[in-house]
Amino acid sequence: xxxxxxxxxxxxxxxxxxxxxxxxxxxxxxxxxxxxxxxxxxxxxxxxxxxxxxxxxxxxxxxxxxxxxxxxxxxxxxxxxxxxxxxxxxxxxxxxxxxxxxxxxxxxxxxxxxxxxxxxxxxxxxxxxxxxxxxxxxxxxxxxxxxxxxxxxxxxxxxxxxxxxxxxxxxxxxxxxxxxxxxxxxxxxxxxxxxxxxxxxxxxxxxxxxxxxxxxxxxxxxxxxxxxxxxxxxxxxxxxxxxxxxxxxxxxxxxxxxxxxxxxxxxxxxxxxxxxxxxxxxxxxxxxxxxxxxxxxxxxxxxxxxxxxxxxxxxxxxxxxxxxxxxxxxxxxxxxxxxxxxxxxxxxxxxxxxxxxxxxxxxxxxxxxxxxxxxxxxxxxxxxxxxxxxxxxxxxxxxxxxxxxxxxxxxxxxxxxxxxxxxxxxxxxxxxxxxxxxxxxxxxxxxxxxxxxxxxxxxxxxxxxxxxxxxxxxxxxxxxxxxxxxxxxxxxxxxxxxxxxxxxxxxxxxxxxxxxxxxxxxxxxxxxxxxxxxxxxxxxxxxxxxxxxxxxxxxxxxxxxxxxxxxxxxxxxxxxxxxxxxxxxxxxxxxxxxxxxxxxxxxxxxxxxxxxxxxxxxxxxxxxxxxxxxxxxxxxxxxxxxxxxxxxxxxxxxxxxxxxxxxxxxxxxxxxxxxxx
Length: 677
Prior knowledge:
By secondary structure, this protein is mainly β. Helices cover 13% and strands 40% of the residues. The strands form 2 sheets. It has a 22-stranded parallel barrel. Strands 1, 2, 3, 4 and 56 form a 5-stranded antiparallel beta sheet that branches.
């Protein structure tokens, strides 16, 4: 009996112990369940706090960006927090800086009520915080811009250096410096790739260090839809502006022939002409109020002839042939007279051929003009309608003016030139005066130049050719073919509102571009072959390569060239062409636009092989073409504003690119606000 009672007590104690244990387990289970529920509630609240913190920081950044006031930004943040059912006490606002860029930091803190979890803690609430940081990026519009969303974006290798001290480097793809020996110096880097640029050792904000700001953002084409670009490119629409070669004048001579020797003459002078001379120097007087056929004139060696003309004519000549050591001068004071020449006007080693005729004279030179001797040919100002010749020294047929050897030709200005063919210039040496001058010294000339059978409107093989200005009302500068200059030459082109070249520009030596727009229906290659600067150009007297002040080049890319291995190049600069200074107009329709290529052009722009001192001020715009720099090429802007825009920008082999541009607009489009945390 006692044993049964003892056993009952033991069993009862066990049941009591189990009950106590069960109570503890139940409390623990309730606590875990409470924690799980409260934790889930806190996570939901944190997500809501993060949403509000992001919105508040970004909004505060926008307000700070427009106002520059932390007080105004804080007030805007407080108002936004209140609209979301919280008070200013829930938002902690700070204004740190990073890499020189202002940041807006917002921390949102709320208290989550504890319900079931109170069985484990004496606290009645749980604080939940979320933080967001918005950054106001530096005021640095993009000046080095790669627009393509595919490809390498902006890429540096081989010791290349890019310096854009006051503007952003922007790419719709990557921005990559492949080693720390490549440096990108800029206050801001905009990229739109999945990963941020690296390695960081290649990026610096200034030459003394610091880190630029990095923003993942899309960069808009700053010149898309620009009215000046649209208007400039529209000139390529078919048909191209009227640059077809002018028609050659038609001249026939029925007059007789006369030959002058030192002490005799043969043949008969026409009825309109007479002479009392019996030996050299010969003086011939011709008068005609209507048409006069004067025939062909031949000068033997060592002969001087003066022909005095009066009346309006027209006076029609056949061929004029000038022997060695001889000269002939045509004089007239009659204004507006017409002079026709059926044969080639050609001098060999003569002492000269001078047309000293009245103002406004009209010259119809049906078979071209050639100078190859030491004596010059000179014309007073007038209108020159010139046909073509295939006579040596012209390299091919279809040229209107040919200068070679020690020849010299000067056309005074202001004059109008309508050339059925091209101009060939191969005079030896670099004289203090040019081998060929077309209205130089005058600002109101007009040029409509055809092309030779080799496709050249100007083929400058040697010496110097200078064009006068074409800035008068109605003045033209038009070429029906290519403009080609060789190393060691000097060419100065006219200032004109529009220069229409229905071909390519292949330049070497000294090339001075007069102010205005150059619409080039092909490619531009500068120094691609036989390049090099010229030290004694008559126009400057200083070392020069390419120079152009107030110039815009509009390049169609209808034809391309290989530039130091870069195939299908639309723009090429290299081969020792180390002095290039191209400055866009500061006003007018193409203000700040230096080089424009249409969106249909996919040809490359290549700076290479010793192009070491290239200064371009203004926008270089090739939106669908890649831009390459290699072989120690150096492109800068010498304190002005270079904005380089291409589909990609690739720099290799010790090349250097610099811009001190403070912004033409575009790229980052001024300051931008982005969430960085």
